[in-house]
Amino acid sequence: MMKKLVFVFSILIPMLLFGSGVTVESLELARQQIELFKKEFKIEPREVVFSVTVGSEEGKLAIFGEVSNLELKLSLLERLRASLGVSLEDKIKLLPDESVGEKNYAIVNVDVVNLMDAPRRTLQKNAVTQARMGDILKLFKKDGDWYLVQMEDSYIGWIDGSKIVPMNENELENYLSSSFALVVSKFAQLYKEADPASAIEAKLVQGTTLPCVEVKDEWLKLRLPDRRELFVRTSEVQLFESRNKVFAIEKDAEYIIELAKQHLGLPYLWAGTTSYGFDCSGFTQFCFKMAGYFLRRDADMQYEQGEPVLDRKELKPGDLVFFQTYKAGPSHVGIYIGNMKYIHSGSKGVAINSFDPNDPDYSADLDRKYIGARRIIQR
Which are the catalytic amino acids? Predict the structure, then answer.
């Protein structure tokens, strides 16, 4: 008799725990479907917020969490309703959330700023990437004075709110309404007046884009995100009629290689993306962006772009070369420059190495760790 009672009780457990219509089996099936959905859509947490869990609320199956992409949210709910055959309570929060308010965008207002892996962290080891002055960010949510943001390359991180100027859509549209200047020198000084003897107010890194409000002889007046207006020498920038024209023209491999060589000897910087210091993929991403090609942020992401080069003998200048170093899969990347040589930002900084054992620049370690190449520039 006791065994029979235990058996009956075990059958009733799902009902007692989760209420009518929600069982352990339905919860587990929902979890499995969520994991399959993430794999099918190749959801990358470095580029998409997709934190979703399943549970029970008032006797109904409920999906909780937050996502940054409306289409993904709707597709997931449709998939779950079809596969489970039950009604669902949609408790998923679509970002940006209410903590951001009406200003869902921001412009970086300092020369370079780290994006971190969590709010209120300041150590370089906790940095995930960097942004330049003038970079546009999407604001997802706020924690104290920090924001979770998405950069224009889709990468996500936390940023100190004192380093940015939040804007609504109208303010952003107004910011983008003028011509834009691109900093082409490694560094450019911003002056208070169109006079080299005037006070230097700021320093910009290569690749910075800012609105130009006036051309004055050998000077351009630039407007910063906080609306300060300062001057830069025309020799250090290139002027475009709009921001979307800045990186619109694709340049050749020679341009990329010459740009990369400007930074030879620059020390390696974890999460670095500027002429103050690069990590490996920050270096390749920067060089290609300046040439009009848009790479994803990390080495393993860049390994998924372009076309594979199956034979190392078929490498051409401008191809990305990949290595397996501190973790499984592609974790280091460089730019092939011809003659069996490649340039990269490694532990010794930006340097040129070779695949040729007879070359003084040969790196036996990297030669062993080479795992393949991708062609971004289609000839």
Answer: 280, 332, 344
